[in-house]
Design a protein that fits this description.
Mean pLDDT of chain B: 78
Number of strands of chain A: 22
CATH architecture of chain B: 3-Layer(aba) Sandwich
Number of domains of chain B: 1
Low-confidence stretches of chain B: 1-18, 35-41
Low-confidence stretches of chain A: 458-463, 507-527
Helix content of chain A: 40-55%
Oligomer: heterodimer
Radius of gyration of chain A: 65 Å
Distance between the termini of chain B: 41 Å
Number of helices of chain B: 8
């Protein structure tokens, strides 16, 4: 049955026609048959009924006069009807009276009931008709007659009907099949034709084919027309699509070709750019060297001149030298800034992140700024509340802070105030530099961080900025994950704030500010480094002094006279700086106490005071007396005078540099620090000297003709007797990462030739030589 | 006669349905009573049958029109001589009609009294004076019936005869025709003998 759904339309139509015909025929035949049977039965009943009545009428007298023989005679007349099988007459009270059997006598039937008010009743049962009829004589029931007739005729009729129905049915079906097969084509043929066409169209994707139109005007012809219209549209769209596709492909090809050309051009240009960048880098490297080398000489020598190393200068000479110093320092700063900026822009700036406390790095910057502030009579304050470590490049952090502070000093009028604050702020440490300077106009606040932008109207100062400092500062801060911002009000001052990524302090590294009352050894290192005990009640003063001394000396601190005595006895420092104006105890009394204690009597005490009581001080046994504010060189000079120099017989230093001016400068600086110096002008010469003479250390320039610094290092490290010889490298070269790694591995120190090299140099040399000696003595014992 | 089995059945039903001893015994008594009456009626007595025959003869015979219209409104069956029927005749005729007429029974002692009678049963007690009686009736339209032997041979119209245990009858057609009575062929059909002629 389910398969019929999948039959073709023509089959479906044929089947439907056949089904309809068959059902109609069956119904018709059934109806006729039923009607005929009904009428036949009616006739039969009527016939039997008549016979019953005749029999009844003819047996009335027999009944009334008990003449069963006569009744049976009457009944025997039924033999004429071959279908009557059995007849029976009953008395009115139901007693069998007479009977008739067609064949063998059978069982007498009990009197059948007749409904009251009826004279007759009949039924068809077990293939026969039973009819009972009451015999009425003169209005009175006289007896009952029962006749049983077979349905022989009916059955015959049924049989012949069945044959006729089957024949008619089959014949009709055949005719119906023929007719429906012919007639269904009218409907199915166009539909099948359409289906075939559509299949061909969809299979071959040929939209130019059209379905054959039907001559009929019906739904199918409408459908065919619609399909044809649709095909027309599809054909048009297909064509349009094909054209568009072709266009698109063409366009893609063109674009691809253009792209390829563009790519090629781009590639070429990229290479050019790369080459240009490389050339720029090379140029920058050589520029940095070529520019810094002569400038270093200018700065260094003018420094030496200003300090009066070669001999005292008259006032005019001193002023000229100061001008030279200022000008050259500015120029050097400018060059450094430009180089920094170009490195940042080229993405070549390498940051060496480490974790440190802002408080630890701050004095190094302050020591540089302090002289400027002092010179300009600007008060420098610091509020250090941060307890977190920051993660940043220490050198670059100092550069940032230096830039901000030097700017602040520059734009703050005499008598003003600058403060450095450092606070923790969630995951950051916030450092701000506030000044009471001239301030910045709101419209200028946006541009101060841009390169080569200088705010107008501040040119009155002799120290012109490079216009790069803040731009570099911003880049440096941002590259280290921080942010920089500016608040300012014209005429009242400015506040620059930057952030650095904070690291939670660990127990190992404890911020110094946490226990300000306890003196501590700030730089615990080899015992051979001289120890200086700083006695001052003010934290900033102590830290400033420490920053002056620290690279060269170890520092301990005490904030009161009593503490100073205790610490002096415990630590036995090589020297003591003593402030006189301290609450609770007079510095002079402390001096006396130190002198009286045999354990501390030999320690040289240098008094630092704003009060000039030199005579009293010296009288009480002070080694030196300096008036505050004390400049770093003055302090160092004084301490060096009283602390025995670390130099001895094998502390001579071999200076290697191809630049005679640099050599002279370095010689002068080292000699003044108490070192014996031998200078050579080439790598080859240096190797000769090393072969014949014992030296304490080598101070080596990298860029030299023929044998350069790297080759010298290699030779020295290959020589077994020299492989532990300390080498300090001093260069103006921009070093690559690999070079720095090599130098860190093979040498003991690396100094960049820039503005603040001199003291660092002396300190480094001292450190290296002392370290070497310590290693040697340890090796001997 | 129809009622008896019905009644019996009812009591069977009662008996079957009820189980109390008292009711069963009452039912038994009633059953006995009815049973006796049923058996009494089951075999009708000779004269009960004959009474029915008398009535039935009337249904197969046509009297001349003037006789039936002239009579006083009832169809009368007369018994001449000693009445052998007892209650049976009256019981049989009670409520019966013939056409529009009520059927009634009358006892007479003389043939002269039979003026209003349509059917006259001549008792066997009148056997000795049968000829006189027949003579007296003449050609009167009265259907004479009797169980006196040889009655039909003595110009009697219908003679009841006993054949085994059945009551049959013989007909003297000459007598009836001369009295102007028409007998239905149906009646003749069941007659044991139909006489014609003087005998």
């Amino acid at each position: 049955m389910l398969n019929i759904r999948n039959y073709s339309i023509s089959k479906k139509l044929t089947w439907m026609n056949m089904l309809v015909s068959a059902v109609a025929l069956l119904l018709a035949c059934g109806g006729f048959c039923a009607y005929d049977l009904y009428s036949f039965r009616s006739a039969l009943v009527s016939n039997v009924s008549t016979q019953a009545q005749i029999i009844g009428d003819n047996t009335v007298s027999a009944l009334l006069f008990n003449d069963d023989h006569s009744a049976e005679k009457t009944l025997s007349a039924l033999a004429a009807n071959q279908h009557v099988m059995y007849a029976q007459i009953y008395t009115p009270d139901g007693r069998p009276f007479a009977s008739y059997w067609r064949n063998h006598p059978g069982e007498t039937r009990p009197v059948p009931a007749i409904a009251s008010g009826q004279t007759q009743n009949y039924w068809f049962r077990d293939g026969h008709l039973g009819l009972v009829r009451s015999i009425i004589f003169q209005g009175k029931p006289t007896g009952i007659v029962y006749i049983r007739s077979d349905l022989g005729a009916t059955n015959d009729r049924l049989k012949s009907y069945a044959v006729i129905i089957v024949v008619v049915f089959l014949a009709s079906l055949v005719v119906a099949l023929l007719i429906s097969r012919l007639s269904q084509r009218v409907i199915s043929e166009p539909v099948m034709q359409l289906a075939r066409t559509v299949r061909i169209v969809s299979h071959e994707k040929n939209y130019s084919i059209r379905a054959a139109t039907s001559p009929n005007r019906d739904e199918v012809s409408t459908l065919i027309e619609s399909v044809n219209e649709m095909l027309e549209q599809i054909q048009q769209r297909d064509g349009a699509l094909q054209r568009a596709h072709g266009d698109l492909e063409q366009r893609v090809r063109e674009r691809t070709a253009q792209l390829a050309v563009a790519n090629k051009e781009l590639d070429l240009r990229n290479r050019e750019v790369e080459r240009a960048t490389q050339m720029k880098s090379k140029f920058l490297a050589s520029m940095s060297h070529e520019l810094r080398t002569p400038l270093n000489a200018i700065v260094g020598f003018s420094d030496l001149l200003a300090e009066g190393a070669p001999g005292p200068l008259n006032v005019k000479q001193k002023r000229f030298v100061d001008h030279i110093k200022q000008g050259s320092t500015h120029l050097l700063q400018l060059i450094n800034d430009i180089l920094d900026l170009s490195k940042i822009e080229a993405g070549q700036l390498e940051l060496h992140s480490e974790e440190f406390l802002v408080q630890d790095a701050l004095p190094e910057v302050l020591s540089t700024i302090d002289p400027l502030a002092v010179a300009k009579n600007v008060r420098l304050e610091q509020k250090l509340e941060s307890k977190s470590l920051v993660k940043a490049d220490r050198v670059r952090f100092k550069q940032v802070l230096y830039n901000l502070l030097s700017n602040a000093v520059k734009f703050t009028p005499k008598g003003g105030q600058i403060s450095v604050e450092c606070v923790d702020d969630c995951d950051f440490v916030r450092v701000s530099v506030t000044d009471t300077g001239i301030g910045i106009r709101p419209e200028d606040q946006k541009v101060v961080f841009e390169e080569f932008r200088q705010v107008d109207g501040n040119a009155s100062d002799t120290q012109q900025g490079t216009g790069l400092g803040l731009a570099i500062t911003k880049r440096l801060v941002e590259q280290q994950g921080g942010q920089i911002s500016l608040e300012s009000e014209l005429g009242k001052g400015s506040r620059f704030t930057f952030t650095l990524i904070a690291v939670k302090p660990t127990s190992k590294i404890r911020p110094a500010a946490e226990e300000p009352s306890k003196p501590s050894v700030m730089v615990p290192s080899g015992r051979l480094t001289p120890l200086v005990l700083i006695v001052d009640d003010e934290v900033p003063a102590r830290e400033l002094l420490a920053s002056y001394l620290e690279p060269e000396y170890r520092v301990a601190m005490a904030e009161s006279g009593a503490e100073a005595l205790k610490e002096a006895q415990r630590l036995r420092p090589d020297a003591i700086t003593l402030d006189l104006m301290m609450p609770g105890s007079n510095g002079l009394e402390t001096l006396v106490a130190l002198r009286q204690n045999p354990a501390t009597a030999d320690i040289p005490v240098i008094i630092l005071s704003i009060v000039d009581q030199k005579q009293v001080g010296f009288a009480l046994g002070a080694a030196d007396y300096l008036i505050k504010p004390v400049r770093k060189p003055t302090l160092l000079e004084a301490i060096r005078r009283h602390v025995p120099a670390p130099a001895d017989e094998d502390s001579s230093i071999l200076l290697v540099d191809d630049d005679p001016k640099a050599l002279e400068l370095l010689e002068e600086a080292l000699r003044s620090a108490g070192y014996e110096v031998q200078s050579v002008r080439s790598g080859a010469r240096a190797l000769e000297v090393l072969a014949n003479k014992v030296v304490g250390a080598i101070l080596l320039d990298l860029l030299m003709p023929d044998i350069d610094g790297f080759q010298v290092i290699r030779h020295v490290r290959q020589e077994p007797t020299l492989k532990d010889l300390p080498i300090l490298v001093m260069t103006a070269k921009n070093l690559s990462r690999e070079e720095i790694a090599l130098l860190n591995r093979e040498t003991q120190g690396l100094l960049q030739k820039d503005s603040s090299w001199k003291h660092q140099l002396v300190a480094e040399v001292g450190r290296v030589i002392r370290g070497h000696k310590l290693a040697k003595s340890a090796g001997q014992s | 006669m129809n009622r008896a089995p019905a009644t019996l059945q009812e009591h069977h039903g009662l008996w079957r349905d009820r189980s109390s001893l008292l009711r069963r015994s009452i039912a038994a008594v009633l059953w006995l009573l009815f049973a006796s009456s049923v058996f009494g009626q089951d075999k009708p007595s000779e004269y009960q049958v004959k009474a029915a025959y008398l009535y039935n003869f009337g249904r197969f015979v046509d009297w001349p029109a003037e006789v039936t219209t002239a009579t006083t409104g009832s169809f009368t069956i007369c018994v001449l001589g000693e009445d052998p029927f007892g209650q049976a005749l009256d019981a049989t005729l009670a409520g019966e009609t013939r056409g529009n007429q009520k059927v009634a029974a009358r006892r007479i002692s003389n043939p002269q009294e039979a003026v209003d009678c349509q059917i006259l049963f001549i008792s066997s007690s009148e056997a000795k004076r049968l000829n006189k009686i027949i003579e007296a009736l003449g050609n009167r339209a009265v259907l004479t019936v009797s169980d006196i032997p040889q009655f039909s041979q003595h110009r009697g119209m219908i003679e009841l005869v006993l054949e085994g245990n059945r009551i049959r009858f013989e007909v003297n057609l000459t007598a009836t025709q001369s009295a102007g009575l028409t007998l239905s062929s149906e009646l003749l059909k069941v007659a044991t003998a139909v006489r014609k002629g003087r005998d």
